Amino acid sequence: MNSKRLKFFTAGFALLLAAQVLLPGRSSAAKVMEQLPKPEWSYTLPDGITFWGTIDTLQSKNRMFIPLVKTVTVSPSKTKSSGMLYASIDRINGSANWVYDYSDMANDKPFTANGFYSASNGYSYFYKMWGGKPYDLTVVDPNGKRKWTKTITGSYSPVVLDNGNIVIRTLVSGNGASRGITEYSQDGKQVRKLKLTGKWASGVIDVLPNGYVVHKELDTNRVSVYRSLDALTKPLAAYTAPKAVKYPDFQVYPLRGGSFLIKMSSSDTWLLFGYDANGTKKWVRPVNKMDRINTTGNNYLIQSDNVYKLYSKDNQLLGKQQIGEAGDREWYCRITPSGEITVEKQYQWQERPAVVDPETFEGDIAKEDFYVLDPANLQIKYHLSTSWHDYETGHNYIYAGDGELYITRSYAPKTITKYMLK
């Protein structure tokens, strides 16, 4: 890299860190920091492996779990790839990293269903379909060692509970329609095995990470929420859509402490209901068709294009934030594993100089903006604004909370670097 390009790279990686207090209708001046701090560490993957789908990054207290892609050479003119592996990275110092590879390059079929999960205690879980409905469910300990594998014959993906247990929902064959629910502890012991009949045999059954059970009864336009798999006799709360509402769909969002939200949506009606931990309906709010609902801790976020509004579990406005110009829908927002809110936009191509000197022009320039919003009040905690040459633009920003940021390149990324924002 020549000195001129290195100089631009250093300047281009400068960022704006905004510590901005935002209450409804009021914000403070931004505090600017001109460059990223010195990296804490970097980790490069083994040959033939790249990061993939960092949007699906999971984390425990001490580790990151990130999907990977492996590419092998089959012949001089042919390669084969698999996404059935993931990296576990030590967040503290980037050491003790490992890759778990559950691919079978010779026998895996294209688009074989698979997925991986992690629990807060550092254990990881993955499933892999091996034809038809049966699949293998495997649990791996924090050191990357396989603990146990079970063959599951149902058609549902597993659910990892907040306590680390795994719930499997299955269809049960035989006389009479029924549903099966099996829960395993982290060490592979069966905690419970239920066979649900009658009303449970129809509709949709979901088990939420906090242990709540949701039953959507499609024939009655009703949704019921139960406190746990041990309390399926009487619902904690139930809501039936008015007869005038045709083909409603329901989504249940758990909040910390037992409160929860129910969203009802149909072709012309969109409502959000708030319930306390006792199952009492406390409030109702109309929402728009295109609004996105997310929860973080005890609060919930409504995203309307690029306008964000944060409400408490009691439906009180805690903060409002607009990122970018009014109506700009190209910003991407997500709730990170740490519970904080990030908003980003990449590939914002900048205007070329009026006169381009072919001897000095090094290519088009794009800007990337990355925000971290406080999940308590939508304060802007950090705002990174970076400029890149066209061959350098495109990055994955993985935010883990408390200023802990990981960055990889978007195109064939092999290296991940940790920064501590201050």
SSE layout and pairing:
Blueprint: H1 3-12, E1 22-23, E2 26-27, E3 41-44, E4 49-51, E5 58-59, E6 63-75, E7 78-82, E8 85-90, E9 98-101, E10 114-118, E11 124-129, E12 135-140, E13 146-152, E14 159-160, E15 166-172, E16 178-184, E17 190-196, E18 204-207, E19 213-217, E20 222-226, E21 237-240, E22 249-254, E23 260-265, E24 270-275, E25 281-286, E26 292-296, E27 299-304, E28 307-312, E29 317-322, E30 332-335, E31 341-349, E32 365-373, E33 380-389, E34 395-401, E35 404-409, E36 415-420
Antiparallel strand pairs: 1-2, 3-36, 4-6, 5-6, 6-7, 6-8, 8-9, 10-11, 11-12, 12-13, 14-15, 15-16, 16-17, 18-19, 19-20, 20-21, 22-23, 23-24, 24-25, 26-27, 27-28, 28-29, 30-31, 31-32, 32-33, 34-35, 35-36
Question: How would you describe what is shown here?
Answer:
The structure is a single chain. Strands 4, 5, 6, 7, 8 and 9 form a 6-stranded antiparallel sheet that branches. A 4-stranded antiparallel sheet has the order 3-36-35-34, with no helix packed on it. A 4-stranded antiparallel sheet has the order 10-11-12-13, with no helix packed on it. The chain is mostly beta strands. The longest helix has 10 residues, at 3-12. The protein has one helix spanning 3-12, and strands spanning 22-23, 26-27, 41-44, 49-51, 58-59, 63-75, 78-82, 85-90, 98-101, 114-118, 124-129, 135-140, 146-152, 159-160, 166-172, 178-184, 190-196, 204-207, 213-217, 222-226, 237-240, 249-254, 260-265, 270-275, 281-286, 292-296, 299-304, 307-312, 317-322, 332-335, 341-349, 365-373, 380-389, 395-401, 404-409, 415-420. The protein is built from 1 helix and 36 strands. InterPro entries: Quinoprotein_ADH-like_sf.
